[in-house]
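Box 3.1. Reading complex inputs
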Amino acid sequence: MSSSGSVVARPGLLGIENLDRSEIEWLLKRGHHHKRKPGESAKKLDTLRGKSIVNLFFEPSTRTRASFEIAAKRLGADTISISGEGSSLSKGESLVDTLNTLAAMLPDTIIMRHSASGAPHFLSRYLSTPIINAGDGLHEHPTQALLDALTILDHRPTLEGLRVAIIGDVGHSRVARSNVYLLSKFGAEIVLCGPATMTPKPLAKLVPGIVLTHNIVEAVTNADVIMMLRVQLERQNVLNFPKNEYFQFYGLRWEHFRRAKPDAIVMHPGPINRGREISSEVADSPRSVILNQVENGVAIRMAVLERVCGHTGESNN
Amino acid sequence: MSRLLIKNGHLIEPSSGIDAKHDVLLEDGQVAAIELSIDATDAEILDASDCFVAPGFLDIHVHLREPGIEHAETIETGSRAAAAGGFTTVCCMPNTIPVNDSPTVTSFIVERARRSAIVNVYPIGAITKESKGEQLAEIGSMHKAGIVAISDDGRPVMNSRVMRRAMEYAASFGLTVIDHCEDLNLSMGGDIHEGAHSVRLGLRGVPGCSEDVMVARDIILSEATGAPIHIAHISTRNSIEMVRHAKHLGIRVTSEVTPHHFALTDTDIAGYDGNYKMKPPLRAHIDKNAALEGLIDGTIDAIATDHAPHTGNMKMQEFERCPFGVTGLETAIGLTLEELVHPGKIDLKHMVRLFTSGAAEVLGLDRGKLTVGGPADVTVFNTSREWVFDVNESQSKSKNSPFHDHAFRGGPVATIVAGKTVWRAPVGVVT
């Protein structure tokens, strides 16, 4: 009963949900390899020399876009960046036509962010160029979950058995979905927390064993990792919560750490809204690994680009 | 004088209860004779051996897109798709451009149908002007011009006062109100059924309750006014249960279901393919099972396709940008056989009723039966021919079906309107 779409694509990276644990392990290992050691200056590699990579962002982005671009350049690839505004999309061209046009120029990979869930999945049925999903609507943001895992592993020996609380606008969060899939493949204990209107009950069924709560104190209790999510005002058709009391009930504050594990870390995919979902005190504290996440983003995206461009990494080891 | 003799077929005729081998002679647009065996040497013969012969099938819910959206479908192409699906009569929804909210538009459709359609086309008028849900359309004048029901399908009347007045007023002309039950506030922004699958795919949900609250409202208004109400494309377990209960209470409520709602569920949506996007959305398994139950026990009166053509480029987009709706005329009989008849849930008599007398009675149409002197509309189908639906071969101008490449067992064989064969299955597949 499936519809047409006969193209057999080289595998890109569309999401974490259908990725094997072994593949994730390879990416994490490779990402770790690409991390800069303290005091070391950035080496420019030639692993992907001659490869051309299109960065196609239909939605505003600072860190993800810059991160992919830096990663590609460190590997020696040629990159071009196109944003939604100023592209032919704003002239009424359809997404398929835009992508077909770009694909005709034979890039090796297209990195794509789009506000519509499934946009890269839909395109991958018609395009032979591999697509790396840099975030699709409310659905997945695979490289974010990978860099989050890499960051957690900077502070913990393993993901197994960790208690990870993901707090905020979970329902609208592609970061949360990708993290849930990744963490569950490694046996972490996942707690999702947020206002009832942003945490639809079926979230608890994404993977087995999820705990869903509307109480932040319960969520942070004994947590090893606290992942805060931005309130995605732009993705809500209408505001489903009283804005002014959000921080009171779901903002992460210093006092919450009394309940968490003594060495618990705080993460946030950014951009952060101080005083909305996280207090400045927490954001700037040593518990916060937000900037490590950004740093690890480059390393993990190098690993992803290598994998998608067919490089095994052997010669660099 | 044109004479067509349908020989050797197994006749299923709900109004007389005939369910046996009969020959049927059609003459000058009317049924001339129904006998165990007829010989008419001067008549054209249609050999219906191994086939079933039934009154012409009705689809009381289609979108023909004319006037205004002719790039997606016209009355002519839509009627050809209907014929290829075994339908001799279709009722077309008023959401054209302009909306069929006046006798001028109604007359245009009636005239276009007379000149270009190969099946009977009965227009459905709007409930309110421009289907804006505010002021009643010219319901009486449209009735005189040929509408058979009223509906603001796709843009349902949210204002219960307006709905109440529409039901009262329409009933005085013998017209039934057809409601697409959807609370637009509850469903706002939704693309697929709200549930585990929408959460997983990151698509916004259309909750089942957005249908249920309006079905409840309509039943209550029907009870209060005594006017009939017909629930279009019913899709949730709760709605079906409420209709069942209302019928027990003697309230004048009827309902229809689409083949895609009893054949598919939300988990069949794959690859963010816009050809699985329609309203109401494909629901959960319990809803699909409830639809099957409703068909079995008579809660659901008719099968209707909600044939909703959209051009290819409209469905070749990001899922959330795709318009709602799928084509359905040519796959309806095949899907009904597959989901209901072959598994033994209903018998063929029941299936024929759902496509003929059941559908006709919902709107009070004098169709859906084969009686001597009555209209010579006949559907010939079989239950064994194996065929594959190729959307590129579709008679419809649009190709937005989720059933492309689907293999069927049984389907329409010949479609006869007013004694004339308007469609036959491709040569070589007729047994």
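In summary: Residues 1-9 of chain A have pLDDT under 50 and may be disordered.
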